[in-house]
Give the backbone structure.
Amino acid sequence: MLLEWLRRHQNTAVPLLLYLISLSLLSHRAYSRHSIQPSLFSRAVVSVVGYAQMTATGTVTGIENMLDRYLFLAGVEEENQRLKLENHRLRRQLAALEEKGLENERLRKLCGFERSGQDQWVPARVIGESVGGVNKVLTINRGSRDGVRPRMPVISYDGAVVGQILDEPGSVIGFDSSQVLLITDRRSRIPVMIQRPESRARGILVGVPERGECEMSPAEKLAVVEPGDLVITSGFGRVFPRGRPVGRVIEVDRDPSRLFLLIRVEPLADFRRLEEVLVMLKSEET
Amino acid sequence: MIKQYIGVLFLALVMVMIQSALLPLLGTRLFVDFLFVMAVIIGLFKDRVHGAIMCFLIGGLEDLVAGQLPGVFMASRLTVFLAAQFARVRIAPDTPVAKFSLGLLMGLVDRAALYVLYQLFADISPALTARTAGLMVLGMLINAALVPVFYYLFKLIPGFIEQRRGPRVAG
């Protein structure tokens, strides 16, 4: 009876049924409080797309490298000189930092702080960007096979916070690929603080994708914050370890009608040029 | 028919790959959405049952790749497909200009559907600023321009676009 009715009204029934499926999927995932284990099928699809993205990115990067290596050799001499100078400068800095590290270690021992272990990182290559234009999500070539799990911190090679492994209802970590929720995504929430010693104002950093930046709020109204101040992770929430640089204050809105300050923050990581990132698999702090 | 489903899904996979991996490498950050264009073309040339299933599937693929709430693109692509089917009766999509106009109209339908779905199901809906609105309009124009191009791509899938026969001429 039902089948007969469906057959007769299939032009209406099929789209209606598909609508029902998609809307019920949406409402189930949107209002579900527990994270849902993605199916093997979803993981397989995401993995296939991930491999395809890796191939495409690899091909284009390979061509770019070849062009860079063999065709665009102009200015190599000057760049070489510049890199030599930079190398000298970095060596000096490294020596100073090693010295500071040793001093830090001695002080830790003096204060009775013990290191519980070392941070564990895995390097990853960016192989894709969000489709659809609404989200700020990157795809990287590391997945469950490499130990990547939801909410793991992701930073750039120069140490700036990039985001975290996507942990949204419906997000899927493939076998060899996963998605990174950038700090400029509207869904991103990171506990941060102002680095300046006389300030140390705390707040939550929220992404503003329309401007490609973030907003820090709420910060106490009397907090000492100036444009140019460095924003670092506060370590609250136990996702990001404390002290990782996130961005720089570009504007402080001291609107008297507001209870808190609204601080505009420009991310330190340059998402447009991001090619490689590091995923923190294990942190001694978190 | 199975060949057509496989063809559409394969094409969708290639498009997702280009959209998410290749376009960003070329520095393009416009709201170019190939799968939306595919949904419009499917709406123009497929019957309601098979077309709806195809759009549902490519929407699902887009949901997975975009890190989106699953179902958002499934529902929006389905809406675009049904709207395109409805509109094809009024706008005969025979010329490239007609296809472009239809693409533009469907772009508005798509944005409206996404807006409603975000309002209903997402905690945070995307805010509209002058810059994003400008980019969105530019993206819609590009997507609309891609409709006639995709028409020729879809011709590559065996039997997807049936050739219409002209009226019989007597004598």
